[in-house]
Amino acid sequence: MTITQPAVDVSALPVVDLDTSALADDPYSTYRHLRETAPVVWAPAINKILFTTFEACAYVENHPEIFSSHVEGAAMVKALGGRPLIRKDDPDHATERQSMNRPLRPRNIQGAWNALFEQNAETYLDRLVEAGPGADLNTEFAMPLAGKNLIDMLGLHGVDPLDIARWSLDFIAGSGNVTDDPDIWLRCETSRAECDAALDEAIPRLRAHPDASITSAMLAGGLPEDAVRNNVKLTISGGINEPQHMITNIVYELSRHPETLEAARQDPTTWDSIFNEAVRKYTPIGMITRETVAKGEFEGFHIPAGAQVGALLASANRDEGRFPDPDGFSLHRSETTSLAFGRGVHQCAGKWAAQSSIGRIAIPRLYERLPDLHQDRPETWNGWVFRGMTSLPVTW
Ligand code: HEM
Fold first, then answer.
1. What is the pLDDT of residues 182-219, one digit of tens each?
2. Cis ω on the peptide bond leading into residue 84 (within 30° of 0)?
3. Are 90 and 221 contacting, i.e. CB atoms less than 8 angstroms apart?
4. Which of 33, 102, 145, 295 has its CA 20 to 30 A from that of 45?
């Protein structure tokens, strides 16, 4: 283990020996161990104070005056080529967020996006059916569908769904490139250049002919062009991988619980509960990062100013204090609000778009078209900060 000397005094916090490769293999047993240790711990292996329980993570999200998003030297800023709103604090963050919110409100999604989400789901269902039983649900359906939905929401033309999915992976790799791997920076540079070329076409078009897209809303809201470009790249890095993972997560779970699938067939409102419980259980964004700009205190643990912080959302969502039998999958929980989309001022801007495009459209259509769909062979999981399947072979 590499020991990083903390720049601030963390001596009051319990120290944990974090094994990041074990975390990627099975994050949930490590998270259990961390929660049993304390709600706040110091992890020298990643140079971060970690918040491990539901209430501890909620404390981070609820106190932006202590936990700043304006992380200095953030790898994400280098990966995207500029600072997006997720790496800013209010009031700067709020100005940019306001113009993004409009196209992503539930009523707008209903009016502008659902018909496109349905059309895209049909297109990639055709592709999956053509690939035939034994196909990989991730590459034949989940990835290109999530990519195409976001291309439409961003108002981009002439972009291939698999290219935008690659940009997304490159920006994510760059945002986590704490070891400064030059190959990863090169990938980010290439993806940034391709994305900027698409924006060179989109920006003048959307200025002349505004539409319902997120990019158009940011331009109409008067954001400077570089802010629009940074936020488009942020949306690409956060708006594909996670919806994609939710498709495979739900099919994986329903392959093990046919009675839950049957319940959704009897009562379609069950699809919303399935999506909510799956996004809790398989929280796609496992950790969000902040930097303390003031001292804090949580349940007697003193948090110094000037420290790097990780709020473990995936651990919070398996906190037995909040969700009894947290490793189970239950549609009858008394507490259904998880931290999968974060909370507070940075709560996910695409929450309703994800729920609608995946939970209400892609997944129900998948089972209408292929009623016997289920997992065929073993799946492959990857990551812990961003966690999901890289392959899920299915048959029907
Ligand atoms: C299941 C799918 C998704 C999950 C689990 C998810 C999760 C999250 C989380 C946890 C955050 C908060 C990060 C933080 O506080 O640091 C976030 C922020 C964000 N998400 Fe999502 N997301 C999803 C889908 C989407 C989609 C489809 C879009 C775009 C259409 C999107 C756009 C954004 C943006 C722009 C932010 C930054 C918000 C801000 O800083 O104010 N997300 N997301």
1. 999 999 999 999 999 999 999 999 999 999 999 999 99
2. no
3. no
4. 295
Rounded to whole angstroms, how far apart are CA atoms 369 and 220?
Answer: 40
The protein residue with its alpha carbon nearest to ligand 1, atom 32, reads 350
Contact 389, 382 (CB under 8 A): yes
Distance 85 CA to ligand 1 centre (A): 11
Indicate if ligand 1 lies below 6 Å from the C-beta of 312: no
20-395: CATH topology: Cytochrome p450 (1.10.630)
- Which atom in ligand 1 lies closest to the alpha carbon of residue 84? 40
Whether ligand 1 lies within 6 angstroms of the CB of 353 is answered as: yes
Tens-place pLDDT, residues 241-288 = 999 999 999 999 999 999 999 999 999 999 999 999 999 999 999 999
Residue 46 is given by DSSP the state G
Cα–Cα distance between 15 and 139 in angstroms, integer? 40
Q: Ligand 1 centre from 12 Cα, in Å? A: 33
341, 356, 360, 389, best to mutate for ligand 1 pocket (most atoms within 8 Å of CB): 341
- CA–centroid distance, residue 14 to ligand 1 (Å): 31
Ligand 1 in reach of 249 Cβ (< 6 A): no
How do the domains of the chain map onto residue ranges? 20-395
Residue 245 CA, closest ligand 1 atom number = 1
List of the chain residues with pLDDT < 50: 1-3
Collect all residues with Cβ–Cβ distance below 8 Å to 331 and sequence separation of at least 6. Answer: 260, 263, 270, 273, 274, 277
Which amino acid is residue 127, in one-letter code? R
The residue contributing the CA closest to ligand 1 atom 34 is 349
Q: Average per-residue pLDDT in the chain? A: 95
Which pairs from 135-140 meet CB under 8 Å and 24+ separation?
135/393, 135/394, 136/391, 136/392, 136/393, 136/394, 137/247, 137/248, 137/251, 137/392, 137/393, 137/394, 138/244, 138/247, 138/248, 138/389, 138/390, 138/391, 138/392, 139/391
| Collapsed DSSP state (helix, strand, coil) of residue 27 | helix
Please tell me the total number of residues recorded for the chain in this structure.
396
Distance 191 CA to ligand 1 centre (A): 20
Query: 285 CB less than 6 Å from ligand 1?
Result: yes
